[in-house]
Amino acid sequence: MSAHDQEEDQTLSEVQRIQMLEKSMSLNRIILLFLAILAIVSLSVSITWVLLSATGEDPTPRLQEQISALQEENAALKADLAALKDQIEPVSSELAKLRGLVQNSSAPAFQALLIEQEKSIQEFLKALKTGMYDLARMVPGSRTWLDIYGQQMDNALRQSIGRMRQLQRLKTGEETLPLN
Predict the structure, then answer these.
(1) CB within 8 Å of 114: residues ≥ 6 apart
(2) Is residue 169 within 8 Å of 176, Cβ to Cβ?
(3) What are the b/e assignments for 35-44, b being 16+ CB within 10 Å?
(4) Among 33-47, 48-62, 79-93, which stretch is predicted with the lowest mean pLDDT?
(5) Which residue range(s) make up the domain with 13?
(6) What is the number of other CB atoms lying within 10 angstroms of the CB of residue 176?
(7) What is the C-alpha to C-alpha distance for residues 53 and 179, in angstroms, rounded to an integer?
(8) Are residues 50 and 18 in the same domain?
């Protein structure tokens, strides 16, 4: 066989020999790397096992205590939730009743009626003031009473506008200001 090996060696060029050596080396490297990783994993498992067995404690009873405590807390929370649900039902029914009362109350309708009444009063005061002006132009020497009554009409008109604004604020829920 040695003659046969020599013939094969002679037929292979140096480049082919180097390639064969590199292939065998890369295979050897992969095997060594795998063995090194296997050794590291087994070493870490062994160290973990030694550390856990060295404490001498069995973690199971402690975990059982924690589980039972969590179960008790869960039961207490479920009881609290049931109590809250029982409280929510009457409150929600009362809320529905109150909403119905507010919608059916006459306050919004009364406010709208008062706003319309104030608008009518303002229109009446404006028409009355225009009529007084026309009358004052027809009657000689009536400038003084026109000024006096005109100021009183302006004052009444301002108060009516203030009341209307107050009613509109009440209607929208804004904070109301005191009337002057």
Answers:
(1) 163, 167
(2) yes
(3) eeeeeeeeee
(4) 48-62
(5) 1-56
(6) 12
(7) 86
(8) yes
